[in-house]
């Protein structure tokens, strides 16, 4: 007894060999790409740059006696809006042509060296929003051992007490550092723009083709583009391209707006908990619209609303996680596939939002973007899989309808042929009856007897239309292959004990029988001796188990090439796939004749 897998493996060994041939150039490309990625992420020109992070003394300008060390705290406690914190340390790192890069997050910045003012942002405290700023400050050649002081002031409670980010290096190194930090964000932006444009194009394509637009793809496309834009807006390099106020509005607006689209998307994909989740999403949409209006009217700016926004998104992450678990529990196909990824994204974003609420402002923004991008890629993968599955099902349905139409045509032709023969027999019978009546009227009894003998010898019996079972589709398939086998001088033995209706779909039933019989006839026809050619198929349904047993003769010299299955073994693969889908099995015995047994557990 041979397992069906062995026949498939024999046919596909050549594909493995071809794959190995393609593997070498692919690995070469990967190695080269890795080399360039490493060079971009750690450029040679970046060697003379360093972030000054854990060597600061921090204190409130109004209370200089209470000093904190930056390695112990991330934000100066008990700092109110418009209070100035001082960052102080002695410069010790020797760099030729040294410069400072100072990055402020909605903060006014002043830089001093031994009390001498080197940089003043130029804003005043009355300027409500300092925006997102970055400053390049030249250091004198004798800066070693001198005291560096940076005064940081902000009108917003969310950023009060937060130190500025400071880097030291020569101009080339600082630019290389900014460039290398921007590369991951640029890659994320490029992927998001390309993926978002593809989703929007697919939205238009399906809408125009089906004359019905699916809003899920529109929302997902916009969300993907916003993820890329939101990520790049927080990169240091982007500070150089926009006015600080515009940059602040852009970054905060994208941060506020982006999660709304994925929440609305998940709402549209939900079924059982749509009502309560929809109420929360509607609340979030109204809050976002209100915040945009208040910022536009200069009543309540985005930085003031960050605590409220982060708190709402914490609740949103928890609500989304609960929605995913609930929909998965109720067997929502979309959430059944995506629940682990949605849970992972919800947990990571929950952690990020909590860190922002408690005052940890140096959170890597790329983390959230990568989580969102990963979620989009998984959703796209699911959508592609679903689209391919639906397309394949539609293709199978079309193929089945074509086969069924062909079977019906053949059946109709057979019926019409029998009707023509019956009509011809009717006319001949009418003529014979008239001749017998005429001889009877003449009293020619001997001639009548001889005439009837001659007619009986000329009579050809009608070819019967076989009825194999109560299942009409099986009858049509058996009738077709009986006629084909007859033309090839192949004996057939078809039997089916089936009810008129089966819980097995017509598409699956026809795929099984057509693949088995096609390949069996092709293998048997190779025999040179017509007397040895035969194909048999018996189909029996016992309770919920359907058993199909097919037997055919074959040329044993072809055994190593899987004789009874042509087209590279794909017919066998289709049969095995259908059997597995119905918790069945497929066995093959090619000892003498080729015997295939397929069992299916019908629902």
UniProtKB/TrEMBL annotation:
Domain Sensor histidine kinase NatK-like C-terminal, chain residue ranges per copy: 507-596
Residue ranges of the TM segments: 20-37, 186-205, 217-242, 248-268, 280-300, 306-325, 337-359, 365-385
Matches recorded under Pfam families: HATPase_c_5
Keyword Acyltransferase: no
Residue ranges the record marks as coiled coil: 408-442
Alphabetized Gene3D superfamilies for the sequence: Histidine kinase-like ATPase, C-terminal domain (3.30.565.10)
Record's keyword terms, sorted: Coiled coil, Membrane, Transmembrane, Transmembrane helix
Protein's name according to its UniProt entry: Sensor histidine kinase NatK-like C-terminal domain-containing protein
Lineage: Bacteria, Bacillati, Bacillota, Bacilli, Lactobacillales
């Amino acid at each position: 007894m041979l397992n069906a897998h062995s026949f498939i493996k024999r046919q596909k060994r050549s594909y493995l060999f071809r794959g190995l041939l393609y593997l070498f150039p692919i690995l070469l490309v990967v190695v080269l790409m890795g080399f360039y990625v490493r060079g971009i992420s750690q450029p040679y020109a970046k060697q003379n740059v360093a972030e000054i992070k854990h060597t600061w003394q921090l204190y409130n300008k109004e209370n200089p006696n209470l000093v904190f060390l930056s390695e112990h705290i991330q934000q100066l406690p008990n700092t109110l809006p418009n209070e100035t914190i001082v960052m102080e340390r002695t410069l010790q790192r020797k760099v030729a042509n040294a410069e400072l890069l100072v990055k402020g997050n909605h903060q006014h910045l002043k830089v001093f060296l031994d009390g001498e003012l080197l940089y003043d942002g130029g804003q005043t405290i009355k300027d409500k929003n300092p925006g997102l700023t970055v400053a390049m400050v030249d250091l004198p050649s004798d800066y070693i051992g001198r005291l560096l002081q940076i005064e940081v002031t902000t009108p917003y409670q969310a950023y009060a007490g937060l130190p500025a980010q400071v880097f030291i290096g020569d101009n080339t190194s600082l630019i290389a550092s900014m460039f290398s930090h921007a590369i991951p964000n640029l890659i994320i932006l490029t992927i998001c723009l390309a993926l978002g444009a593809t989703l929007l194009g697919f939205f238009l394509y399906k809408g125009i083709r089906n004359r019905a637009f699916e809003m899920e793809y529109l929302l997902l496309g916009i969300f993907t583009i916003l993820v890329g834009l939101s990520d790049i807006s927080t990169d240091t390099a982007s500070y150089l391209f926009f006015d600080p106020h515009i940059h602040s509005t852009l970054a905060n607006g994208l941060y506020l707006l982006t999660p709304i689209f994925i929440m609305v998307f998940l709402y549209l994909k939900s079924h059982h908990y749509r009502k309560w989740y929809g109420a929360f999403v509607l609340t979030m949409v109204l809050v976002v619209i209100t915040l945009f209006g208040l910022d536009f009217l200069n009543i309540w700016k985005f930085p003031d609303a960050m605590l409220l926004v982060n708190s709402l998104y914490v609740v949103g992450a928890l609500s989304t996680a609960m929605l995913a678990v609930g929909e998965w529990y109720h067997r929502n196909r979309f959430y059944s596939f995506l629940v682990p990824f949605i849970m992972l994204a919800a947990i990571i974003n929950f952690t990020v939002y909590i860190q922002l609420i408690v005052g940890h402002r140096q959170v890597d923004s790329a983390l959230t973007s990568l989580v969102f991008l990963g979620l989009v890629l998984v959703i796209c993968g699911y959508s592609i899989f679903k689209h391919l599955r639906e397309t394949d099902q539609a293709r199978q349905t079309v193929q089945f309808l074509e086969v069924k139409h062909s079977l019906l045509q053949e059946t109709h032709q057979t019926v019409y042929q029998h009707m023509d023969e019956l009509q011809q027999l009717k006319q001949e019978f009418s003529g014979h009856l008239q001749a017998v009546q005429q001889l009877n009227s003449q009293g020619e009894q001997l001639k009548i007897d001889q005439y009837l003998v001659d007619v009986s010898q000329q009579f050809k019996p009608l070819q019967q239309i076989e009825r194999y079972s109560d299942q009409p589709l099986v009858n049509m398939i058996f009738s077709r292959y009986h006629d084909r086998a007859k033309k090839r001088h192949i004996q057939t033995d078809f039997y089916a004990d089936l009810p008129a209706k089966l819980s097995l779909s017509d598409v699956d039933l026809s795929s099984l029988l057509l693949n088995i019989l096609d390949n069996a006839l092709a293998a048997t026809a190779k025999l040179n001796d017509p007397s040895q050619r035969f194909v048999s198929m018996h189909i029996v349904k016992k309770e919920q188990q359907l058993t199909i047993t097919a037997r055919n003769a074959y040329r044993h010299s072809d055994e190593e090439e899987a004789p009874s299955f042509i087209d590279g073994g794909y017919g066998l693969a289709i049969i095995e796939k259908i059997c597995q889908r119905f918790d069945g099995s497929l066995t093959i015995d090619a000892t003498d004749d080729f015997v295939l047994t397929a069992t299916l557990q019908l629902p």
